[in-house]
Amino acid sequence: MSKYIIKRILVMIPVFFGMTALVFFLSNMTPGSPVDAMITPEMSVEDVEVLRHRMGLDQPVYVQYVKWLGRMLEGNLGNSYRTSNPVIKDIGERVVPTLILTLTVLAVGVVVGVTLGVLAACRPYSIWDTLASGLSFVGSGMPGFFIALLLVYCFSVKLGWLPTGGMYSNAGTRAFGDLARHMVLPTISMAMASAGNYIRQTRSAMLEVMGEEYVKMARAKGMREPVVLYVHALRNALLPIVTSIGMSVPGLVGGAVIMGITMYITIAVLFTNLVMDLLYAVLDPRIRN
Question: In DSSP terms, which residues pair with 86 in a beta bridge?
Fold first, then answer.
């Protein structure tokens, strides 16, 4: 197992450098530059060139990348061209709320999706199968922003049960109960799409596995149904489900354009892929070879 982990980590290193280089060069190719936002009518052409030299933008792009990468590995991500604040500070102000929402959405989506998927597979054409199919259809077919608007209109505007936005009612008061109330609507609106995907994956994988000979043999030996379902069937059906969960993580944390945030997203995605690979190895020991 240790050799397998080391092999996966070694594979991640060139992927990390390749991703950061690709994003850096693509960002450099976009029209305009940070200097354009700093030019004032009083500045001469010489002043602009001095500013470009001070920011290192007059150097070849590969030199800029190497210097940026060196500062990044030292923990210095520089200053934001938009806010002029240290990038690490801007990231720090947003990473905690992002992690709270991402992990909550992921947990709710996995629990609801896998549970309903298993129930739908075990009881075809039952009320559970109908409920799971309906949720899967709504979650996959309706855009997340439209679901969010419906939830806000019903539960915030009309009923007044939940807040319309933000993390806390009062910036000075950070109670857990207040945070939970603010998390309900965004969690539901974001988790419905992922839960719908997990339901389809789980139901399909479980139906396929439950027709295998070893499941029939386990039932023939008189094993209890929960043991057959969760020890034999679900464990062997988890590989495509784990893959689906791993592929949904980048979508939950993505969407940022700041280089520093892009770098952290790259690390998060690579770490998630490593965790998924380890889960594959645990679920199917043949993968380690």
Answer: 79
Q: List C-alpha distances in Å: 156 to 84, 152, 182, 206.
A: 36, 5, 11, 38
Per residue, the 3-state secondary structure of 111-136, as one string, reads HHHHHHHHHHHHCCCCHHHHHHHHHH
Q: Cα 235 vs. chain centroid, distance in angstroms?
A: 23
Residues in the chain: 289
For 190-228, b/e burial (b = at least 16 CB within 10 A) is bbbbbbbbbbbbbbbbbbebbeeeebeebeeeeeeeeeb
Residue 170 in 3-state DSSP?
strand
Cβ–Cβ contacts within 10 Å for residue 59, how many?
Answer: 14
Q: Which two tokens stand for residue 112?
A: 């609801």
**Structure token pair of residue 270:** 């690579």
Q: What residue has token string 């994003």?
A: 23
The closest alpha carbon to 204, from 233, 181, 166, belongs to 233
> For residue 258, how many other CB atoms are within 10 A of its CB?
19
Q: Report how far residue 96's alpha carbon sits from residue 174's, in angstroms, rounded to the nearest whole number.
A: 13
Enumerate residues 6+ apart whose C-beta is below 8 A from 247.
Answer: none
Q: pLDDT (tens digit, 0 to 9) for every residue of the chain, 289 residues total?
A: 677 777 777 877 888 888 778 877 777 776 666 666 666 667 777 777 777 777 777 778 788 788 887 877 776 766 666 666 776 777 766 777 777 888 888 888 888 888 888 888 888 788 888 888 888 877 777 777 777 888 888 888 888 788 877 776 766 667 777 778 788 888 888 888 788 888 888 888 888 887 777 777 777 777 777 777 777 777 777 777 787 777 776 666 554 446 556 666 777 777 777 777 777 677 666 666 6
